């Protein structure tokens, strides 16, 4: 048996903004509460799934708040919805049915996310979801190794909380990596026994380690090298262990190679440009192996993914 299959029902719903808090220089945490019908659809959402938000009606922030590197593209029209994964989903039972609150961590990178900076409590957004296939949690799982690269961290934060709530017997550890300390979308603190840890995971009771390419925080080097060092120094049972990875494709390819070297199963959350999010535009193709043959075929990241078995993915870049 396994958990983590996709919620097959999706629709267009509204969500009200509860808060929109800046957590780092270019990172924000957006909290939403879904309307009653949307709450019923999102009640069984699993980590790794996502939604698409209509941001076309939002205004730009004052010019003084627009980062210099975005000023030339800020005025570009936002036509398509934008996809976002969840960093947390909380369902509260009420007399009128479930009330679902979503947490989204986003980075201001372009015209759409730039406009999200202006969202405030009480604003209403249109969204489509829940979309895609999430992470699968097998009943034999005893050790979950989470590998997060940069903005790949939010769905793994959701997964960490999900495992603690629904599979408390599973030992979970997260390795969070980025180019530098400033590129981590989290708060770092000194743990009592374990050195530098990620506060958001520590609050959940999930162990964590930090790696930065430049050594500005935690392990110096790629996060996959940090994981390799940890695996080499711990006794693990491959049949009870799963790697869950989300981040840039080179990191995902590295996680797949790491899993193969240690004989571990690995699920990777892939990223592509998604125009529609429901499989109509065919713009988010992922090349995968076709069964046990040497042939390959294409799956859609939005519909068949974004989570795939790493053994099946033909990565566009090598680790």
Mean pLDDT: 90
Q: Supply the CATH superfamily name of the largest domain.
A: Nucleotide-binding domain of ferredoxin-NADP reductase (FNR) module
Q: Give the strand tally.
A: 20
Major beta sheet, specifics? 7 strands, antiparallel
List low-pLDDT spans. Answer: none
Helix and strand succession?
EEEHEEEEHEEEHEEEHEEHEHEEEE
Supply Rg.
19 Å
Provide the CATH topology of the largest domain. Rossmann fold
CATH class of the largest domain: Alpha Beta
Tell me the number of helical segments per DSSP (H or I, 4 or more residues long). 6
Separation, N- and C-terminal Cα atoms = 32 Å
CATH architecture descriptor of the largest domain: 3-Layer(aba) Sandwich
| Count of domain modules | 2
Kindly state the percentage of residues in helix: 10-25%
Structural class: alpha/beta
Strand content: 35-45%
Globally, the shape reads: globular
């Amino acid at each position: 048996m396994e958990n983590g299959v996709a919620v097959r029902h999706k629709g267009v719903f509204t969500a009200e903004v509860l808060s929109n808090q800046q957590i780092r220089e270019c990172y924000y945490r957006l909290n939403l509460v879904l309307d009653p019908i949307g709450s019923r659809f999102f009640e069984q959402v699993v980590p790794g799934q996502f939604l698409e938000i209509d941001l076309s009606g939002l205004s730009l922030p004052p010019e003084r708040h627009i980062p210099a590197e975005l000023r030339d593209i800020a005025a570009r029209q936002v036509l398509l919805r934008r996809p976002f994964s969840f960093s947390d989903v909380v369902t509260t039972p009420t007399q009128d049915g479930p009330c679902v609150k979503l947490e989204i961590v986003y980075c201001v990178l372009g015209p759409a996310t730039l406009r999200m900076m202006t969202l405030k409590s009480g604003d209403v957004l249109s969204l489509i979801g829940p979309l895609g296939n999430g992470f699968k949690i097998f009943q034999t799982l005893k050790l979950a190794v989470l590998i997060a690269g940069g903005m790949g961290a939010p769905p793994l934060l959701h997964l960490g909380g999900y495992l603690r709530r629904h599979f408390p017997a599973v030992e979970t550890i997260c390795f969070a990596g980025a180019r530098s300390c400033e590129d981590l979308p989290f708060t770092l603190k000194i743990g009592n026994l374990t050195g530098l840890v990620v506060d958001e995971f520590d609050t959940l009771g999930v162990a964590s380690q930090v790696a930065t390419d430049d050594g500005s925080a935690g392990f110096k080097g790629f996060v996959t090298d940090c994981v390799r060092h940890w695996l080499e120094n711990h006794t693990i049972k491959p049949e009870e262990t799963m790697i869950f990875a989300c981040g840039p494709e080179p990191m995902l390819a590295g996680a797949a190679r790491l899993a193969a070297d240690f004989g571990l199963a690995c699920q990777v959350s892939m990223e592509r440009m998604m125009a529609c999010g429901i499989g109509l535009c065919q713009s988010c193709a992922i090349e995968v192996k076709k069964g046990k043959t040497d042939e390959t075929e294409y799956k859609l990241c939005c519909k068949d993914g974004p989570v795939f078995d790493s053994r099946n993915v033909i990565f566009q870049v090598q680790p």
